[in-house]
Design goal:
Length: 429
C-alpha cells in the first residue's frame, strides 16, 4: 500500500526513534521567527485570522439586526459544521498532493473576493440573509481546504528543533487574536460603521493570499504520490493514522475527554446554574478561559526540553480532568474563575503539544491528511461535547455534569496511557 512507502512504519507499534539526536540548547520563545519563510507564513496567518474574525462578527451582528432571530443566527454554526468536516478531509488530501503555498493563496483569495462582494451588497442595501448563509458555507469550505496545508507547511519552514516554538507561536496568535479581534471589531463598528468594517475585512484578506507566494521553501510535499482519486487518498490517510503508534491514542483521548466536558459554549448556563450569576459572570469566565489558554500556550515553551511529548499530553489532559471535577464541586465564582484559568492552561498545553507531535511523527507526504484527521476529530468532539454537556446539565445539573465529565476524563486518560504504548515511549529529541 502507498502508506507503507511513507518513510515510517505506522503498521507496527514501534515508536519513532530519535534518541540519537542531541538535546538542543534552550531556545528563546521567539526562536521560530528567526526564519524568514516562517515569518511570511505567520503574517499570512495573522491576516487570515483577522479577516475571519471580522467577517464572522459583522455577518452575525448584521444577520441578527436584520432578522431579530436567534435561531437564524444559530444556523450559521450549523452551516459551518456541515461543510467543515468534509472540507477538512478533502483539504488534507489536497495538502499532500498540491503545492501547499499555492493552495493557501488560492483558498485565501476567495475570502477577499467574497467579502468584498458582501461589502458592496451591504453598501448598496442589497444584502440579504441568504447571502450570509451562502458566503458562510462557501468560505467555510475554502478555509478548511487551506488550513491543513498551512499546518503541514509549517514543519517545512523551521528545523525540527524549532517546531514546538513555531506551533506555540501559531496557537498563541490564535488565542490572543480571539481576545483582541472582538475588541477591534467593536471599535471599528463604533467609529466607522458596519459597511466600512466589512470592507476592512476584505483589505486584511489581501496579505493572507499574497504572502504565501513569497515563501522560498519548496511547497510540494516530498515523496508525494500522484496515483488514485482523492477519496482513495483520504482512505489511505485514515489507514496511516490508524496504524500510527501514537496518533490514535492522542486523537481518541482528546475526543473522549472533550465529548464529556466541552463547556465553553454553555457558559451562560453554567454561570446561572452553578453561580447564580448573569451576563457579567459569563464574560469573566470566558475571559478567564482565554487567559488560561494564553498562559498554557507560552508555558509549553518552558517544556521544550521535556522529551516525553506523548506523556506531556497525558499529564496535561489528566490535570484538565481533575480540575473539571474541582470546578463541578465549586459554588464560588471567584474560585471557579481561578479553576477555569487552570483548565484553559492545561487544555492549551495538551493541544499545542499534540499538534507538534502530529507533525514531528508524520512523514511529509502524509502530514496534511494527519492534520486534517486531527482537526476533524477536534471539531466533532467540540460539537458533540456542547450537546452532551448541555443535555446532561438539564438532566442532573451543571455541577454534577462537570464532575461526571471529569471522572470519565480521568478514566479515558488512564486507559489510553495503559493501552497505547507509543504514547508512553515516544521521546523527542
Amino acid at each position: 500500500m502507498a502508506v507503507e512507502d511513507a518513510g515510517t512504519e505506522p503498521a507496527s507499534d514501534r515508536v519513532p526513534d530519535e534518541s540519537h539526536t542531541a538535546t538542543p540548547p534552550s531556545l528563546p520563545p521567539w526562536a521560530a521567527f528567526a526564519f524568514s519563510d516562517y515569518r511570511i507564513l505567520w503574517i499570512s496567518s495573522v491576516s487570515s485570522l483577522i479577516t475571519m474574525q471580522l467577517r464572522m462578527l459583522v455577518a452575525g451582528v448584521w444577520l441578527y439586526d436584520e432578522t431579530g432571530s436567534g435561531v437564524q443566527l444559530g444556523m450559521l454554526g450549523v452551516v459551518q459544521l456541515a461543510v467543515q468536516l468534509p472540507g477538512t478531509l478533502y483539504g488534507g488530501a489536497l495538502a499532500d498532493q498540491m503545492d501547499r503555498k499555492k493552495l493557501i493563496a488560492l483558498t485565501q483569495s476567495f475570502s477577499f473576493v467574497v467579502i468584498a462582494l458582501l461589502a458592496v451588497l451591504m453598501a448598496t442595501e442589497n444584502l440579504a440573509p441568504w447571502h450570509i448563509y451562502a458566503s458562510t458555507a462557501f468560505l467555510g469550505i475554502t478555509s478548511m481546504l487551506g488550513n491543513p496545508a498551512r499546518s503541514a507547511l509549517t514543519a517545512n519552514l523551521v528545523p525540527r528543533t524549532h517546531l514546538m516554538h513555531a506551533v506555540t507561536a501559531n496557537t498563541a496568535t490564535f488565542q490572543i487574536g480571539a481576545i483582541l479581534a472582538p475588541l477591534a471589531f467593536a471599535g471599528a463598528v463604533t467609529r466607522f460603521g458596519m459597511t466600512p468594517t466589512f470592507a476592512l475585512a476584505a483589505v486584511f484578506a489581501v496579505p493572507a493570499f499574497v504572502m504565501p507566494l513569497l515563501i522560498r521553501t519548496q511547497g510540494v510535499p516530498m515523496d508525494r504520490q500522484d496515483e488514485g482519486s482523492m477519496v482513495r487518498r483520504i482512505i489511505e490517510g485514515f489507514h496511516y493514522v490508524r496504524r500510527h503508534p501514537i496518533l490514535p491514542g492522542l486523537y481518541i483521548m482528546d475526543m473522549g475527554v472533550t465529548i464529556v466536558s466541552h463547556y465553553r459554549l454553555i457558559l451562560p448556563m453554567i454561570a446561572d446554574k452553578m453561580f447564580r450569576a448573569g451576563a457579567g459572570a459569563v464574560g469573566i469566565l470566558n475571559a478567564a478561559n482565554s487567559f488560561g489558554g494564553v498562559i498554557g500556550t507560552f508555558a509549553v515553551l518552558s517544556l521544550t526540553r521535556f522529551r516525553a511529548k506523548g506523556m506531556l499530553v497525558v499529564y496535561a489532559t489528566l490535570v484538565y480532568a481533575v480540575l473539571l471535577i474541582a470546578f463541578g464541586f465549586n459554588t464560588w465564582l471567584w474560585l471557579g474563575t481561578i479553576i477555569i484559568i487552570g483548565m484553559g492552561a492545561s487544555d492549551a498545553i495538551g493541544m499545542t503539544t499534540r499538534q507538534t507531535t502530529v507533525q514531528l511523527t508524520t512523514s511529509d507526504n502524509m502530514r496534511g491528511r494527519a492534520v486534517s484527521f486531527s482537526s476533524m476529530s477536534a471539531m466533532s468532539a467540540n460539537n458533540l461535547g456542547t450537546f452532551e454537556v448541555g443535555f446532561m446539565s438539564e438532566q442532573i445539573g451543571a455541577g454534577p455534569t462537570m464532575i461526571l465529565g471529569g471522572v470519565i476524563g480521568v478514566v479515558v486518560v488512564l486507559a489510553m496511557w495503559g493501552l497505547v504504548r507509543g504514547m508512553r515511549e515516544y521521546r523527542y529529541p
